[in-house]
Specification:
The protein has 366 residues and is mostly helical. It has 13 helices and two strands; from the N terminus they run αααααβαααααααβα. It has a two-stranded antiparallel ribbon with strand order 1-2. The protein is 75% helix and 1% strand.
């Protein structure tokens, strides 16, 4: 009997996403009472952990940097679907939702995931070592498309307020997508070695020495369950978002906090996967996840929103405010100083986490 229970529990990564999707179907479009919100939250947490497990299976099968790319792109595609869905149903309150969520994703990935990974990696082996060439190029791409998509709308004059004209939005969308695709080409083909994990001595770690790669069938199963789990994560996050909005309003905090909370929920699988990679001395994998997710959040979201604006009514507010611009600029400067040496210690990790804390505090108390 114990063996059967153990075997059943060992398959939780398969049945929890399915249960989460079933709960999503049953609760979609309904006002949830407190007990249903609690159950949805528990299933949401289980789906996050299952997504991390299946992403690691796929990553082990295809190797780096493809494994990091799979999770980053999968999460971002579903994040885009969530933003568009909320914009359709949110009315005037959702005009700045894309900006708030994308900016939150950039700050969480470039400061939260990156800082936490550096801290874990440095505590484990005193100094976290990574490729400055690949990581620096990724950070430069994030800085460029973040500035183009989130800063420039506050300074253009074709439309009133922090928004692009249709032509400007189209240019930003094409430029962001083009740069993201160029980064993927460099990461996966032309300079793939810049994104492979390395030892403290600088030697490339090409494969795991202690684990057999999963079979093709197991990897394909994990791909399917990863998508199911991510759909459940984003769908349940949307389901509990009215409760989040009510709690935010009751606390007297600004509407932008909703975008921050959604970004935190959606990026939780990548955060856990990055920390686990750092704990296994795969610091480059962690940084691939952090910066790759930041770039995908902008490079895929802005083009998708640009297309969606053909059907959506009302203005799209993309430009950041002064406080947010300062935080973004500080993130880029500190990130540059962190990645250029190719080595970091606990101080750099703590600095990035301090920046994340400042962002979260100022989002709640502007």
């Amino acid at each position: 009997m114990n063996a059967k229970i153990t075997s059943y529990l060992a398959r939780w990564t398969a049945w929890v996403p399915i249960l989460a999707v079933a709960a999503l179907i049953l609760t979609w479009g309904r006002d949830l009472p407190p007990p249903a919100v609690i159950i949805s939250g528990l299933l949401l947490a289980g789906a996050v952990l299952a997504a991390v497990h299946h992403a690691e299976v796929v990553a082990h099968k295809v190797g780096e940097p493809f494994g990091s790319l799979v999770l980053a792109v999968a999460v971002t595609i579903i994040e885009v679907a969530l933003i568009v869905t909320l914009m359709i149903s949110g009315g005037d309150k959702a005009q700045a939702l894309a900006r708030d969520t994308v900016f939150a994703a950039v700050m969480i990935t470039c400061n939260g995931i990156l800082g936490l990974s550096l801290l874990v990696g440095a505590i484990r082996r005193r100094v976290a070592v990574f490729h400055s060439e690949g990581t620096g190029g990724a950070l430069a791409a994030v800085a460029m498309i973040a500035t183009l998509s989130l800063v420039l709308p506050s300074f253009t004059t074709s439309r009133p307020g922090p928004q692009f004209s249709p032509a400007q939005l189209g240019f930003a969308a094409v430029a962001s997508l083009g740069l993201y695709l160029l980064f993927v080409l460099v990461q996966t083909h032309r300079h793939r070695d810049y994104f492979l994990p390395i030892t403290t001595a600088g030697e490339i770690i090409k494969e795991e020495d202690h684990l057999e790669p999963p079979t093709r069938r197991a990897a394909l199963t994990s791909v399917g369950l990863l998508l199911v789990a991510l759909i459940a994560v984003v769908g349940l996050a949307k389901g509990v978002s009215p409760s989040i909005e009510s709690a935010v309003a009751a606390a007297g905090m600004p509407q932008a906090v909703v975008g921050v909370v959604i970004a935190l929920l959606v990026l939780l699988p990548e955060t856990i996967a990055a920390v686990r990679a750092a704990a296994r001395d795969r610091m480059q994998t962690s940084l691939n996840l952090a910066l790759g997710s930041a770039m995908a959040s902008i490079g895929l979201t802005i083009p998708a929103i640009a297309i969606a604006m053909i059907w959506l009514e009302g203005p799209l507010l993309l430009g950041l405010g002064g406080t947010q611009m300062v935080l973004l600029a500080l993130t880029v400067v500190v990130g540059t100083l962190t990645v250029v040496p190719g080595r970091a210690n606990v101080l750099q990790g703590g600095i990035h986490l301090g920046l994340l804390a400042a962002f979260l505090f100022l989002a709640a108390s502007p």
